[in-house]
Design brief:
single chain; 488 residues; mainly beta; Tachylectin-2, Chain A; Jelly Rolls; 6-stranded antiparallel β-sheet; 2 helices; 33 strands; binds beta-D-fructofuranose; hydrolase activity; glycosidase; Sucrose-6-phosphate hydrolase
Length: 488
């Protein structure tokens, strides 16, 4: 609320740079607190203060990876959205650049919403949704909200200029409500640019709009993707890419009925392969939404998600630490057995700092709150990994459950997943978040997890050909020192 109030009082022209400065000053003030934040993740990206949601603008540009994200710096409950920014040469060491894009024009005055990045020639272009809340009921779906596509450009990947309004509500097809957002750009097979946008149709159906452009300035509607029967009323954050010749359309449907085995969260996130018969969910845990993919310079397709879900109804952290949410680790996507597998990018094994051996009952204490558990060649049909006081990952043949029996789950209970047979498990633990990878990423489960003990207490029940326990050390972003944010 504070940001909104301050921003509303500020004339738009003056807002330019003001919000960025305010955020930097605030982050600078918060920075010394970081060392005291007991729940703060160390190798999952999260800003120095406030609220984070979707990853945005993921790309490799001029020798660095860029990870932007939906950021609301002034309160952990969220509010006016901007783009925060990290960059990294290697996905292991990150630099934090603060606010990259702030809302300072009439066409984005209520938020710089999600979007993506694309290189053209020597320049980097980003496209995002400029959110405008009109007077009155801006939650009314047929009017009251401006959903503009805005473009900005950069020559260094850090400083962005020349906001250009590319599309406004008038440009969207008649069937659409005013909920159209999250431009994702890519190069089509014919070499022309394409942009997909998530949409809510008037008939209460989620859809994706497809636009074509030769110059990244003029866009022409080329088509629309949707399912025959409505699958949710809105599709957010679309993405299109290929995996070994298979065309993938990823979307985040809202309004899908909750099932006991599938679609267990309030909003979904998954992908369709070509003929769009069924959505495959990216992640079966409690905390995952709005992922985005990009191509690394070596051709790998990498996905980063938001380790959170909007309106989830359970806590993401003790709010008194002044932050909420983080991103998942970057995951490499590969195509096996007709589906996409996700696995932490191989760079991450460099974060390991020593191996710990279990006793003969399978019990081990890894010092600190960051670690990795690997079981390869699982030989028992049933088994479990117990962590801290209340977190259990169990399998029974191909049936996997992730459950919390006490406050380590902060309101989370149980999530299920199926594979044909559990053969391997890898668990990444980072202070207050965990990612479980079954069978090298056939199924993934991401969740917040609020460890009570100062060290990682783990017990592995079952037999496996190889068991490995690692400590993971070090913060991946060291720029949160007390002198960060040296803006007056
Ligand atoms: C998804 C989303 C996007 C939107 C952004 C706003 O979580 O709702 O559709 O652009 O968040 O922060």
């Amino acid at each position: 609320k504070t940001t909104e109030m301050l921003a509303e009082k500020m004339p738009l022209t003056q807002r330019k740079e003001e919000l960025k400065k305010m955020a930097a000053a605030y982050e600078g003030k918060q920075a010394p607190q970081i060392e005291l934040q007991e729940q703060r993740a160390l190798y999952h990206l999260m800003p120095p203060a406030g609220w984070l949601n979707d990853p945005n603008g993921l790309c490799w540009y001029k020798g660095r990876y860029h990870v932007f994200f939906q950021y609301s710096p002034f309160t952990p409950q969220g509010g006016m959205k901007m783009w925060g920014h990290y960059s990294s040469p290697d996905l292991l060491h990150y630099e934090y650049h603060g606010i990259a894009i702030a809302p300072d024009e009439a066409y984005d005055k209520d938020g710089v919403y999600s979007g993506s990045a694309i290189c053209r020639g020597d320049k980097l272009y980003v496209f995002y949704t400029g959110n405008v809340k009109e007077e009155g009921d801006h939650d009314y779906i047929l009017s009251g909200r401006g959903a503009n596509v805005i473009r900005m450009e950069s020559e260094d990947g850090i400083h962005f200029e020349k906001k250009t309004c590319i599309l406004t509500n008038e440009d969207y097809p008649e069937e659409c409500t005013c909920h159209v957002r999250d431009p994702k750009l890519y190069v089509g097979e014919d070499g022309a640019y394409r942009m997909v946008l998530g949409a809510r149709l008037k008939e209460e159906k989620g859809a994706v709009l497809l636009y074509r452009s030769e110059d990244l300035l003029h866009f022409r509607l080329e088509g629309m993707y949707t399912t025959q029967e409505a699958f949710g009323y809105m599709w957010e954050c679309p993405d299109i890419f290929e995996m070994e010749g298979h065309k993938i359309l990823a979307v985040c449907p809202q309004g899908v009925e909750r099932g006991s085995e599938r679609y267990q969260n309030i909003y979904q996130s998954g992908y369709y392969v070509k003929d769009m018969d069924e959505l495959t969910e990216w992640d079966m845990g409690f905390d995952f939404y709005a992922p985005q993919t990009f191509e690394a310079p070596d051709g790998r397709r990498i996905l980063i998600g938001w380790a959170g879900v909007p309106d989830a109804g359970y806590d993401s952290n003790p709010m008194e630490e002044g932050w909420q949410h983080c991103l998942t680790v970057p995951r490499e996507l590969t195509w096996h057995n007709g589906k996409i597998y996700q696995y932490p990018v191989r760079e991450l094994t460099k974060l390991r700092e020593g191996e710990w051996m279990p006793d003969n009952t399978g019990r081990v204490t890894i010092p600190g709150k960051c670690g990795e558990i690997i079981a390869e060649g699982i030989r028992t049909e049933q088994g479990a990994v117990y962590m801290d006081s209340g977190c259990v990952i169990k399998w029974d043949k191909g049936y996997v459950t992730l459950s919390f029996q006490d406050e380590t789950g902060a309101g989370r209970s149980v999530r299920n997943a199926w594979v044909s047979k559990v053969e391997s498990i890898r668990i990444l633990v980072d202070v207050s978040v965990l990612e479980v990878y079954i069978n090298h990423g056939e199924v993934v489960m991401t969740s917040r997890f609020f460890m009570k003990q100062p060290d990682m207490d783990v017990c592995f029940e079952g037999r496996a050909e190889r068991l490995e326990f690692y400590r993971i050390g070090g913060r991946i972003c060291e720029t949160f020192s007390s002198d960060w944010g040296g803006v007056d």
